[in-house]
Amino acid sequence: MPRRTVAAVAASGLTIYDAVPEALFLTKDELEVILADTLVGEFLAYKLRTRSKVAKQLVCKALGYPVPQTFKRVRPRFPGQDLDVHVQKSNNLQIWNDEISPTRRYAIVRLDANDRVIAVRVVSGEVLALYDRTGTLTQKFQARSRTPVACSVLVSSADTENVRLHAKGRRGLVPIRALFRRLRKLENLAIRDPGVDQERNRGSALHQRICRLVTKKPYSDHGQFPDIPDQLLEIKLQTSPTIDLGLVSPDDESELPDVPPFRHCDVRYAVYFGTPQGTTIRLRHLVLVTGAEFFSFFRRFEGKVRNKKLQIPLPSSLFD
């Protein structure tokens, strides 16, 4: 499928600045496969400005677009595919004079010490926000329970109408009621706590457990949203009342870039509340709710901060 789409892009005569029809719009996963196939092994031993230009030229060729004589100073750099490209020799991603867009895709081209491309990962802005620890992103949504959570709760008695409409076309999608029964099996489970400053690693241990419960696919975390796309499931592990939600509100009705025809508000949120116990976290209660009904149970609050330069430490596991 990706190669046929690339051929269709090449035959269309479109440039990287032109809007593309839905059939030619590549998903995040398709972008990652195509760019990795083309770029891995290339050497980018140039000065920074030249290196960036050469990388963009390679991306044009990989996606089937003609290479422009000069690249316009627009954001994103590839408007038709809503894609930006960053070449990284370290895990410290720097974004200058631009704000993180939740739905934009960010291709991160990783170099080794000899300037050879060793990996390409594509993540959404929504997921990129989760790696930020400085609080300098333009906007992050946060929420907390309206009342203390004293027991497990299935807030949404049914999936959204849109999920029910398209569920028959997605084999293996567990309805929300059955999903709640499966996820409750983890109540009172103790998982390893790598430390309060290791939020993503804490979540990974829970993520692995849930994968074994609800999907036959192996655990993987390459910056996708939601955490388990084939189950439309986002996972939150809470040892404090405040829930970080990233750049997109759960009740947002815009389409998920990589899981069409579903929307952000169709995502099911599994919020586990746990208690730290030495080197472990004991899972106490589960709240399961659709994005559409998220704020019927949780209270929204948000803040805005602006900065001209964003520095985001990327986890090494992103390139595993």
Please provide a written account of the structure.
- With 320 residues, this protein is α/β, with parallel strands linked by helices.
- It contains eight helices and 13 strands.
- Strands 6, 7, 8, 10 and 11 form a five-stranded mixed beta sheet that branches.
- Strand 3 (105-111) and strand 4 (117-124) form a beta hairpin.
- Helix 2 (28-39) packs across helix 3.
- The longest helix is centred in the N-terminal third of the chain and has 16 residues, at 48-63.
Quick overview:
This protein has 320 residues and is an alpha/beta fold. The chain contains 8 helices and 13 strands.
Topology diagram in text:
Blueprint lengths: L1 H11 L15 H12 L8 H16 L19 E6 L3 E5 L8 E7 L5 E8 H7 L7 E7 L7 E2 L6 H6 L9 H8 L6 E3 L6 H16 L18 E6 L4 E4 L21 E10 L2 E11 L3 H4 E7 L4 E5 L7
Parallel strand pairs: 1-3, 6-11, 8-10
Antiparallel strand pairs: 2-13, 3-4, 5-9, 5-12, 7-11, 10-11
Helix pairs in contact: 2-3
Index terms:
320 residues; five-stranded mixed β-sheet; 8 helices; 13 strands; globular
Q: Specify the helix fraction band.
A: 25-40%
Mean pLDDT across the residues is 86
What oligomeric assembly is this protein in?
A: single chain
Structural class: alpha/beta
Number of strands: 13
Terminus-to-terminus distance:
25 Å
Largest sheet data: 5 strands, mixed
Helix and strand sequence: HHHEEEEHEEHHEHEEEEHEE
